[in-house]
Amino acid sequence: MNQAVDVKKSILVVTLVVFCVRFMLADSTSGLIIHAADHQVLITEAHPVLDTDQEITSFTIPLKRAGNLMLVDALVDGLPGNLIFDTGSSRIVLNAIYFRQGRKVNNQVSAGVTGVSGPISQTGIDKILISEIEYRKLMADVTDLGHIEKARNTKVLGLFGFSLFAEYEIVLDLQKSQVVLHKIDYNGNRKMQEATVNFDLEIPITQVSGIVFIEARMANKRCTFCIDTGAETNVLSNKLPTKILNSLTVLRRTKLRGAGSQSTEALFCLMNDFSIGKHRFSDMNALVTNLSHMTYAYGFFIDGMLGNDFLEKGVFCFNLTKNKLGVNFVVSSHEE
Q1: HSE-up (13 A, CA, CB side) for residue 28
Q2: Which residues, 6+ apart, have CB-to-CB distance to 296 below 8 Å?
Q3: 6 Cβ contact partners less than 8 Å away, ≥ 6 residues apart
Q4: CA 154 from chain center: how many Å?
Q5: What angle do CA 100, 151, 157 make, to 5 degrees?
Q6: Residue 61 contacts by C-beta under 8 Å, 6 or more apart in sequence?
Q7: pLDDT (tens digit per residue) in 114-142
Q8: Alpha carbon distance 71, 162 (integer Å)
């Protein structure tokens, strides 16, 4: 019995991966396909060696969009293509179509909302170049991401999350289609800042293995959400309290299809009563589905993931050293 408990604990704390296999939302009546995201959680952090001009204190990285996925131009070991910026992933993940699979990792499989779909292997990377930033000698997970390429007709080398940008304050601005990185010191202060930055909303964040979580309220009940740039819409757990579920407007019933043959039921809804601090957010869509695989991966219950519908509401500034998120709103939200 103790051995079984130890094995389960090692999987959760050390080696369990719930890996970023995109699922497809297929409208059962219209055939519309929209993407959202399932995710990897691996309780080890990447520590890349950064090779940049030390005089440069900020970088602007253009974002491209494939549907609502956020892509950046990159070179991975000399191969050009796109990397998905996916903050629901704690590690670098490469597409097995282009990169040789290395050592298979015991007890690690790709999985997500629709279930388990395949094993994970790891490989070494000599160099990744994103904009003006070069990373050397990294480890990456490798799995088949061909279903993303097929759905979006875009070459996808892989994906990455906050781990590559941990040395920076990260400003995500979807209105300008860019990520701006500001170098920070040991205390999390920008190394070059001409004026004080003020925010419409500033809240604390919690980090678990490089993945950011915030607290929000729905129907006046406290909820925990993952900030997920890889999710093309918000995702809510179908285990939420009845009061919260009753506050949603159901628009249609859908099926989520994973990379393989797995599928699961979901509801496409309108979020009517969502707030963070004193700010209420309107006109946000969400999928409601079973998030038990995500809860198992994170080691605690999550109420949902905030994706593109949420991130389009403003300019988001993540300071992972100070554990703070600042938001300046650019579209509809209002103070209570």
Answers
A1: 12
A2: 12, 16, 18
A3: none
A4: 19
A5: 30
A6: 72, 130, 131, 178, 179, 180, 181
A7: 445 556 688 899 999 998 889 999 999 89
A8: 14
Q: Which residues of 9-19 are buried (b: 16+ CB within 10 A; e: fewer)?
A: eebeeeebbbb
Do 42 and 16 touch, CB atoms closer than 8 A? Answer: yes
Tokens of 145: 């991401």
Chain centre distance of CA 151: 19
Domains defined along the chain, listed by start? 2-183 (2.40.70.10), 201-335 (2.40.70.10)
The candidate with the shortest Cα–Cα distance to 229, out of 33, 68, 90, is: 68
State the DSSP H helix or E strand holding residue 268, giving kind and residue range, or none if neither. Answer: strand 263-271
Amino acid (one-letter) located at 77: D
Paired tokens of 201 = 């909303």
Token pair of 186, please?
Answer: 């040991």
What's the whole-model pTM score?
A: 0.81
The HSE-up count of residue 85 (CA atoms within 13 Å, CB side) is 28
Q: Are 215 and 222 in contact (CB under 8 A)?
A: yes
Cβ count within 10 A of residue 106: 10
For the chain, give the mean pLDDT.
Answer: 79
Least confident of 14-28, 153-167, 243-257: 14-28
Q: Which two tokens mark 148? A: 């993303």
Label the pairing between strands 221-227 and 133-143. unpaired
Distance of alpha carbon 325 from alpha carbon 202, whole angstroms: 6
Fill in the amino acid letter for 71. L
Strand partners, 24: 35, 257
| Confidence grade of residue 31 (pLDDT, cut at 50, 70, 90) | very low
Read off the pLDDT of residues 324-333 as tens digits, 9 standing for 90 and up.
999 999 865 5
Fill in the DSSP letter of residue 163. G
